[in-house]
Structure formats: C-alpha cells, structure tokens
Design brief:
There is one protein chain. The protein is an all-alpha fold. 79% of the residues lie in helices and 0% in strands.
Amino acid sequence: MRRLVNITPKGGLAFVLGSLPLMAAFLVYVHAATLRHAANAADKVLPTLSQMAASFAKMAFTQDPMTGHVLMVADTLASLQRLGLGILISTVLALVIGMALGIVPLVRASFSPFVATLAVIPPIAVLPILFIAFGLGETSKVILIIIGITPFMVRDLAACVAALPSEQIVKAQTLGASTWQLAIRVVLPQILPRLIDSVRLSLGPAWVFLISAEAIASDVGLGYRIFLVRRYLAMDIILPYVAWIAILALMMDFVLRALSRESFPWAHRKAG
C-alpha cells in the first residue's frame, strides 16, 4: 500500500501545490474587499486592487514634491543598507565565534553560557538602551539587528562544528595539523553551507528588528513609512509596502539558496 508519507510532489505538481494557498488567500482578500466596498464605497480597511495599484504607482514612480525623492525607492535603499550592514557584521561574528566555540573547548566553556544568555534576551527590550547609548541614528538600528540574530547564528554554527565527524579532527591532528589549520582547512569548508542557511533563517527576524527600529526613530525606511501612514488608515499604501518587503525577503532567500547550491553542490546532494 502506498502511504501518504512516501508521496513526494515534483516539478509542476510541486509548483501547483505551493501556489494554491497563496491563490486562496488572494481570492479571499479580493472577495472580502469587494463585499466591504459594496456596503461602503469609502471603506479604508480593505482597499481594492485598483486602489492599491494607484497608491503603489504614486509611491514607486512619482517624485515627492517635499523631499525631491521617489519615496519607495528612498525607503527601500535606506532599509536595505541597514539590513545588509547588520547581516554582514552578524555573519562575520557568527563565523568567527561559532567556529571558536565549536573547535576550542576552553572557548566553549568560557563563552557558551554568555552566548546562551544573550540569545534569550528579547532584542526589542534592549532597543531603548541602544537609543540612549548610541542615539537615534543608524548605529542603534544596525546594532539591534546584530544583537537580534547573531546569538542564534553563533549557536547554530557551533552545533554544526560539534556535529562534524571526530575522525576528521583526529586524522588531521595525526597528520600534524595545528589548531589554525584545523579551523581553516577542515572545519571552515564544511560549515560554509550551514552559514548560508543560518543567514537565510535569520532574514525574517532581521526584518522584524529593522522594521521595529525604523518605526520608533527614523525619517526614511520601509518601516518608518508604514507606521507613518497608519495614522491616516492608508491601507492602500501599507499593504503594498508589506508585499514589497515580502518580495525583497523572498528574493534574498532565493539568491542565498542559489549561491549555496552553486558554491557547495556536495552539501545539497548530501541533504538529498
């Protein structure tokens, strides 16, 4: 008897199955918006697709007379700059600290409790401290992203290093490898695919921390714009902005996954 757990959709079937929930959510929204506008043509809670398209075109292609900028372009560039810098610094820190925790027992014994403590502190709770210590500029927003995602990435990489076969470490030492050579030539090549996966998994939390910081103290950015226009119940702007953030996150995830498959095909063959 063919069991349900053994059926693996591929190709077109996988695409259709993956599209069904999105299409269902889209149709439910269109139906609900149509009903609300039939009852009240001035409804702002669920704008129609034409209203959102008009607002999106205005924000994405029209120059703002006050600032001289195209608002969505300026917001996107500002948010991506903060996000990219935060993720880049977190990735470097996670790689260095994660490898040290995984390879060197003395480092693991000294700093594992510290990293574990940082990981359980809600990053949003320290946001006021960051604003007091670093001001309301870019530094506090980038540091919030770093504090938010680095502990998770460090622990993930340290666990990946610890899971490497001990035979490899023993054989390398037998051949005379130093600690530095073990790290660079044995451990590093094997954890790079996991590092990319950690970055992919951290994208969602990183966006959350970025939007939170921009909502509180900023004058440009995707999060700033969403919380600015909410005062006017401008759902026709908020929803396209939310959709745009989702598209940006999906594009980042796609690029990272493609980079991992292209650079480390052996890791994906092993994963099956």
